[in-house]
Specification:
The complex is a heterodimer of chains A (293) and B (277). With 293 residues, chain A is mainly α. Chain A contains twelve helices and two strands. In chain A, helix 4 crosses helix 6. Helix content of chain B is 80%, strand content 0%. At the A-B interface, helix 1, helix 4, helix 5, helix 6 and helix 9 of A face helix 1, helix 4, helix 5, helix 6 and helix 7 of B.
Chain lengths: 293, 277
């Protein structure tokens, strides 16, 4: 009996121990430490950590212009990028589940931007906005391409949105395709016999049955957009004049550029609460709309 | 009549989508074609074909970026982090699923709940933990961090997949005298192969392309990964588009090659990962 207990304990240690150890050190410890550091003033270099109570949070909520601007930018950007990428991804999925001859190649083309690091995509598009659009503008004479794309606050905002939609749509398309293929054929046949046209079939049969895919895709798009960092850093670096700075970039700069680690940690904690709340609310609401086929 | 109209409509739709796909690809055309131009050619003639092919751009960038070294660093980190993650998450998932004690249920809930924590929320104290453990500026230290950040999702995916493996197979192996370790490695782990492929693909896309975490942990130029090295290079050669673009192409190339070789698995892996996630 004793040896059995011993062997059980050993198995628990061997099987779960390593996972628990790395997870505890890399995720849990920093997470709990951040509660403490958010209440301090700390420059990250010296060991001198000064307790300031809730001052950091008070500062963030009342007088931190930069955080407020970045939060507002991130919210608008998330709404536009999530809507755009899901609409485009779903539309592409609908078209590329039809019996088109070139559909496999087309799926590959639309998916390709996803395998490239966001950081590199930002640089690629920086070139497109600065030089490529100008060249197209000269060639076609369209005013759209002659705008100072990364130079003003509103065009830089749309620049971020365009690149994000361009990248995310293909990934979401793959998930939507998998869901659309799984819609039972007999249901579509039955709807057709009942005289439903294409629009009705889409609205009353396909959309309700691919609801689980909407849950997943909205979740992915919201959490990617809200946490955007790499693309932001390489495409606009927050500019012009901080107008396109994401919350993640604002936190990063506060800690690693301004060396205000305590304040940065407090912002990071606020950020965590918001991301957790937004994504759980979204999953809760779309889950309620899912139906069984 | 109905039939031909339908086919005609489909053909029209196909042409529209192909045109859209060409538009989608324009950024890649611009980058590729300008990466082999001279600087003056890039400035004067951005949209057109190169006057002279300047393959020497690539040779220069290859040297300046120390490309082979960066490639090796990325590969080393991605491979080792993947190997470790597969082992620790599959083992933990197996034990947690088959021995649902109170402790294990709690641990599982903890792993899953932690997936909502954004990386940026804990990166500041993480830097302190990493340097406290003496893992700063080391590739192995970075790999250790990937273990911690990847284990939640990997464990969750394995846990979901393992439910479909019949318990009877494992019990039969025990009756035949297999130890618990033998049951896992000889019976269960081979059956996990489809999920292992999914996990490997999701991890590889994430780790190879990751920028923020490596930028916090790795500092010495000799141990930088491809994204870090591209960032440093791009910072030095801003506006020198001929070299910068060749650097970007070199940065992007390995992942594109990987994708074209593994396309089926990648697409399947993403669908599977999304359904479970």
């Amino acid at each position: 009996m004793r040896t059995k207990r011993l062997s059980e304990a050993a198995q628990q240690l061997v099987f779960v121990g390593p996972a628990m150890l790395v997870f505890g050190i890399v995720v849990l410890a920093p997470f709990f430490m951040s509660f403490y550091y958010s209440l301090t003033q700390w420059n990250g270099v010296t060991s001198e950590v000064k307790w300031v109570g809730l001052d950091n949070f008070a500062y963030i909520l009342t007088s931190d212009e930069g955080f407020r601007t970045s939060f507002w930018f991130t919210t608008r950007y998330t709404v536009a990028a999530v809507l755009g990428s899901n609409l485009l991804g779903f539309a592409l999925a609908l078209v590329l589940t039809l019996p088109l001859k070139s559909r496999n190649v087309l799926r590959t083309v639309f998916f390709l931007p996803n395998i490239i690091a966001g950081l590199l995509l930002g640089f690629i598009w920086q070139f497109i906005f600065v030089k490529g659009f100008a060249a197209i503008g000269q060639w076609t004479g369209l005013a759209f391409f002659n705008l100072p794309w990364l130079g003003t606050a509103s065009t830089a905002f749309w620049g971020m949105v365009i690149v994000s939609v361009w990248q995310m749509a293909g990934y979401l398309m793959v998930i939507y395709i998998a869901a659309i293929i799984n819609v039972p054929k007999d249901l579509l046949e039955a709807a057709k016999i009942d005289g439903a046209n294409r629009f009705h079939m889409l609205k009353s049969v396909i959309v309700p049955l691919v609801m689980p895919a909407f849950t997943v895709c909205l979740f992915l798009a919201i959490s990617w957009s809200f946490k955007v960092f790499d693309l932001n850093l390489s495409l606009t670096k927050g500019g012009p004049f901080g107008s396109t700075e994401s919350v993640a970039l604002n936190i990063y700069d506060e800690a690693f550029q301004n060396n205000r680690y305590g304040l940065g940690t407090a912002k990071a904690l606020v950020f965590f609460v918001i991301v957790a709340a937004v994504t759980s609310l979204q999953v809760y609401f779309t889950k309620r709309k899912e139906v069984e086929s | 009549m109905e039939e031909t109209r339908y086919r005609g409509g489909l053909l029209l739709l196909e042409i529209v989508v192909i045109l859209f796909a060409v538009l989608y690809f324009v950024p890649f055309y611009f980058v590729l074609v300008n990466s082999v131009k001279s600087f003056g050619d890039v400035m004067r003639n951005t949209a057109g074909w190169p006057e002279v092919f300047m393959w020497s751009n690539y040779a220069r960038v290859w040297e300046i970026m120390r490309y082979p070294l960066a490639f090796f660093n990325s590969l080393f980190i991605t491979v080792l982090a993947n190997a470790g993650l597969v082992v620790i998450s599959a083992m933990a998932a197996h034990r947690i699923l088959r021995k649902p004690t109170r402790l294990n249920k709690l641990l599982f809930a903890l792993f899953v709940a932690a997936m909502v924590i954004p990386f940026q929320s804990i990166m500041i104290p993480l830097v302190k933990v990493v340097s406290g453990l003496g893992m700063m500026d080391s590739r192995l230290g970075l790999i250790f961090c990937y273990f911690g950040f990847g284990v939640s999702l990997n464990l969750f995916l394995y846990h979901g997949f393992m439910k479909s493996i019949p318990l009877e197979i494992e019990e039969a192996a025990v009756v035949d005298g297999c130890t618990p370790y033998g049951v896992f490695w000889r019976i269960v782990f081979p059956l996990l192969k489809p999920m292992t492929i999914t996990v490997l693909i999701l991890n590889s896309l994430w780790i190879w392309n990751d920028f923020l975490l490596p930028s916090l942990v790795l500092h010495r130029p000799e141990i930088r990964t491809i994204p870090l090295q591209t960032y440093a290079f791009f910072g030095q050669y801003t506006k020198q588009w001929d070299l910068a673009l060749a650097g970007l192409v070199l940065g992007v190339a390995p992942m594109v090659a990987f994708f074209l070789a593994m396309q089926k698995h990648i697409i399947a892996g993403i669908s599977a990962g999304a359904v479970k996630g």
